[in-house]
């Protein structure tokens, strides 16, 4: 039996009343049924606070978009539950029109846009005609906030991918939702305009108290944008926390590699650097000091131009011991670091290393 769209599903428990989280998921699992069932999410718990930006990141196929649909109510968890303001979010079997009334979701396909109508008409059509003055005021305000006012008479069909993305966000925001869900919002936005769109979303969230939950496969897009990062791998949560904390002190090698592209070393490899540890260690690329030295333990294998910096790839002169035989036949240790402009090196230089900081897993 379906319930009316305006009906909240299930009362908040005393446990949920105590939490300050706007949205909270507990032990959520979801499996796509079929000839061969595919488990997209496994026992995943998370939370999002009011007025914050939560970024869900991970590799393609990790379950990010599935989680977004579960939060919006387009899917229902097979196990566990997701609550909004303490109330269980109703799924598609419980509503005539799936999707939570306090939320709006923007996908990559722009399916909700009328491409042959103008920008103004796409946004204004989301509002009722009961108060035309208010309708015009709200439409103009949201177009200005997303820098679309100069395109108001243009057909959506004639816009660039990035401009269509802005129109899609504008149509979602004009109804003043409490939660905005974004699926890869910067995927079709040119690099030159990506930061501008990020700043606009942050400003809207700051001034309105909007909660934003976005999905991204690229950590660089969201490190400066998010208040919290939820990192998913193969449907399971591997980390949840502030971007800076997760970047500077990753809880596991996967997070270290995904966020910082840090160097991950086995205990055997760490010994080449003079580090005695019985666990894996991580070293950030900027935590190594290079010095030219004739008998240095490393040699500059390659130098890669990365725009704002040059990446230096080092190979060890010594091979670590093979873990199985104990003989000196292990793979050459490769380290990646950032060149210091005041102390440049060249391919073929022998190098000694000073490790400024590292952490253990």
What report would you give on this structure?
This protein is α+β, with helices and mostly antiparallel strands. The protein has 3 domains: 14-102 and 177-258, P-loop containing nucleotide triphosphate hydrolases (Rossmann fold, 3-Layer(aba) Sandwich); 117-175; 261-360, no CATH class. The chain is 25% helix and 29% strand. The protein has 10 helices and 18 strands. It has helices at 14-18, 64-72, 119-124, 132-145, 161-173, 191-208, 219-222, 243-248, 253-260, 267-272, and strands at 21-32, 38-49, 53-57, 79-84, 87-88, 103-106, 179-183, 211-216, 228-233, 236-241, 263-265, 281-283, 288-292, 298-305, 310-316, 334-338, 350-355, 359-360. The strands form 4 sheets. It has a 6-stranded mixed beta sheet, with helices on both faces. Strands 13-17-14-15-16 form a 5-stranded antiparallel beta sheet, with no helix packed on it. It starts with 13 loop residues before the first helix and ends with a strand. The model is unreliable at 1-7 (pLDDT under 50).
């Amino acid at each position: 039996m379906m319930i009316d769209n305006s009906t909240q599903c299930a009362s908040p428990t005393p446990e949920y009343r105590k939490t300050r989280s706007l949205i909270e998921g507990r032990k959520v699992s979801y499996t796509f049924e079929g000839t061969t069932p595919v488990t997209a999410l496994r026992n995943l718990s998370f939370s999002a606070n009011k007025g914050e930006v939560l970024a869900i990141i991970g590799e393609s196929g990790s379950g990010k978009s599935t989680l977004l649909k579960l939060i919006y109510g387009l899917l229902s968890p097979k196990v566990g539950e997701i609550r909004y303001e303490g109330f269980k979010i109703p799924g598609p079997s419980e509503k005539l029109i799936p999707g939570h009334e306090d939320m709006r979701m923007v996908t990559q396909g722009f399916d909700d846009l009328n491409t042959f109508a103008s920008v103004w008409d796409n946004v204004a059509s989301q509002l009722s005609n009961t108060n035309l003055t208010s309708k015009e005021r709200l439409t103009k305000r949201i177009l200005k906030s997303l820098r679309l006012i100069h395109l108001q008479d243009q057909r959506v069909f004639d816009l660039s991918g990035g401009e269509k993305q802005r129109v899609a966000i504008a149509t979602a925001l004009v109804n003043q939702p409490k939660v905005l869900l974004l699926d890869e919002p910067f995927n079709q936005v040119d690099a030159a305009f990506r930061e501008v769109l990020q700043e606009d979303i942050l400003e809207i969230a700051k001034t309105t108290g909007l909660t934003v939950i976005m999905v991204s496969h690229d950590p660089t897009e969201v490190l400066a944008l998010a208040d919290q990062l939820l990192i998913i791998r193969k449907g399971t949560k591997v980390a949840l926390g502030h971007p800076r904390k997760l970047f500077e002190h990753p809880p596991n090698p996967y997070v270290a590699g995904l966020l910082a592209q840090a160097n991950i070393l086995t205990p055997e490899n760490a010994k080449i650097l003079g580090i005695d540890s019985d666990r894996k260690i991580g070293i950030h690329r900027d935590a190594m000091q290079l010095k030219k030295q004739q008998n240095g333990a490393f040699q500059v294998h390659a130098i890669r131009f990365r725009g704002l910096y040059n990446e230096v790839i080092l190979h060890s002169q010594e091979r670590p011991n093979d873990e199985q035989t104990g003989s000196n036949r292990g793979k050459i240790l490769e380290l990646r670091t950032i060149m210091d402009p005041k102390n440049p090196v060249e391919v073929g230089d022998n190098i000694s290393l000073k490790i400024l900081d590292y952490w253990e897993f």
